[in-house]
Amino acid sequence: MNKKVLYISTRLFWPKNSGKKITAFFNAKGMHEMYNYDVYLYAFLEVDQVFDAKDQPDFIKEVKILKQPNFLTKLSNILFKTIFGSYSIQSSLYYSKKNMQLIKVYIEEIKPDIVIVDMIRLSRYFKSLDTFSGIKVINLDDLLSLRYERQLTEVTSKTDIGGQYTKDSKGFIKKALKPNWLKRLILSYESKKVKKEELKTVNWYDYAYFVSQRETLMYNMLTHTKKAECITMGVDTAYFGEEIKVDKVKNRVSFVGNYYYSANVDSLLMIATKILPLVKHDIELYAIGPVSEEIKASFEAYPNVKFSGEVDDLRLHVHTSEIALIPIAYGTGIKTKVVEALAMGMPIITNRLGVEGLDVENRVHLLISNEPETIALSIDNLLDDKELQETLSKNAKAYALSNHTWEDIWKDLSKIGFKKDE
Fold first, then answer.
1. Contact 404/343 with Cβ under 8 angstroms?
2. Tens digits of per-residue pLDDT, 75-115?
3. Is the pLDDT of residue 318 over 80?
4. What pairs with residue 230 in β-bridges?
5. In Å, how far are 47, 79, 302 from 98, measured between CA atoms?
6. Which residues, in sequence order, are CB contacts of 281 under 8 Å at separation 6+?
7. N or C terminus of the chain: which is more exposed, having fewer CB within 10 Å?
8. Are residues 362 and 368 in contact, defined by beta-carbon separation less than 8 angstroms?
9. Which pLDDT belongs to residue 355?
């Protein structure tokens, strides 16, 4: 009988249009290809997702869909489980006894060897595992409470703290959450709730894993355990490292992101308002990735910002720029966009948050500047220094190849219980 893993997720992880989806997609692929596990997926759908069996990756054995809790369940959860309880807001929005029972029944049916629960917002589904005798794992990916703490200092009128709920709100929730003071209040409250929840996962799961070694060590230190493991960010180095022949657009710099996520919008706004005005060259900032018409309209005051929209081949668009400009406004973990740019051999300028969790050297693999003035100076200097561009390009690609191939990273899945066939 084949070994089995059940992955309980907040989303389908295809199409691969965000860092978390990419990581989940390739790790699930590794579970099947390297360790010969049948991968079962029980997932919620994001607002714009529709499950179509013909799109299902061939390494996924079966997909089942969980329904979002209804309005009354969410309201009851927020009141009794969050305000008068210990649940984070996001956990309350995802939790229902009906889903818990469905998961429990499915576990009894397929009898997996390992169950992986994805993200802190699903952590409360540990209650579905009370009779499960296999290995219980939570993929925390990064310390979300730390990300919220950092985000507090960068809240702007464009910051959307509602995520998927705001996207499907028909404008009502978005308008209600418009005041910056209210966003900060909710973020501060949720950060405290999430931090307590993160620490409690040590009692609910056998392992937790992160993409960053730094956050792995932080979790183990805070919980006084060794339950956290680092399974870092990978990249398809063969695909992204392929030589792409496209014409460069003079003085174009690119920033890649899914602009339905606040962190990317706020980082783009930081570049447009704090960095580009200090650059001497006439810069075009090419924002590559999915974007709403509302966000595009909000950047009309910045004529140097051009949006691509969702693209079929990221490489063709990134390689039209001279520099991958990736300073991060806030965030935690390893940034997919940075690792992919390294694999593409792009000359990169980023800040300390952009390289957090990466073992890279300034002026060897990329340029690291932290203040708007020094980032702007780095842009001007690098645009005029073709030799440095070539050096960074060569070293960036070599670093990605040595540290972030999926085949090497899949070996670390053994840390959370995966075993190869004997």
1. yes
2. 999 999 999 999 999 999 999 999 999 999 999 999 999 99
3. yes
4. 210
5. 20, 18, 48
6. 251, 379, 380, 383
7. C
8. yes
9. 97
**Residue 422, in any domain of the structure:** no
Average pLDDT over all residues of the chain: 94
pLDDT in tens, 187-235: 999 999 999 999 999 999 999 999 999 999 999 999 999 999 999 999 9
Domain check: are 47 and 124 in the same one?
Answer: yes
Does 61 lie in the same domain as 171? Answer: yes
Q: Could you give the CA distance from residue 287 to residue 304 in angstroms, rounded to a whole number?
A: 10
- Tell me the backbone φ, ψ of residue 171, rounded to 5 degrees: 95, -20
Domain residues for 204?
3-234+406-416
Distance of CA 119 to the CA centre of its chain: 11
* Residue 264: closest CA among 25, 16, 10, 18: 18
Dist CA 147 CA 369 (whole Å): 20
Whether 66 has a pLDDT exceeding 80, the answer reads yes
Q: Which residues of 331-349 are buried (b: 16+ CB within 10 A; e: fewer)?
A: bbbbbbbbbbbbbbbbbbb
Shared domain check, 109 and 223: yes
* Residue 339 · residue 359 · CB < 8 Å: no
The closest of 98, 101, 46 to 76, measured between CA atoms, is 98
* pLDDT class of 177 with cuts at 50, 70, 90: low
SS (H, E, C) 57-77: CCCEEEEEECCCCCHHHHHHH
Q: Is residue 421 included in any domain, yes or no?
A: no
Same structural domain for residues 345 and 220?
Answer: no
Spatial distance between the Cα atoms of 205 and 399, rounded to a whole number of angstroms: 34
- CATH number of the domain encompassing residue 135: 3.40.50.2000
Does one domain contain both 215 and 246?
no
Residue 279 lies in a domain: yes
Between the alpha carbon of residue 304 and those of residues 28, 154, 272, 298, 307, the distances in Å are 40, 22, 8, 13, 10
Residue closest to 19 by CA, chosen among 256, 283, 196, 346: 256
Q: In 3-state terms, what secondary structure has residue 344? A: coil
Cis previous bond, 277, omega within 30? no
- In this structure, the strands spanning 135-141 and 37-43 are unpaired
Whether residue 279 is found in the same domain as residue 388: yes
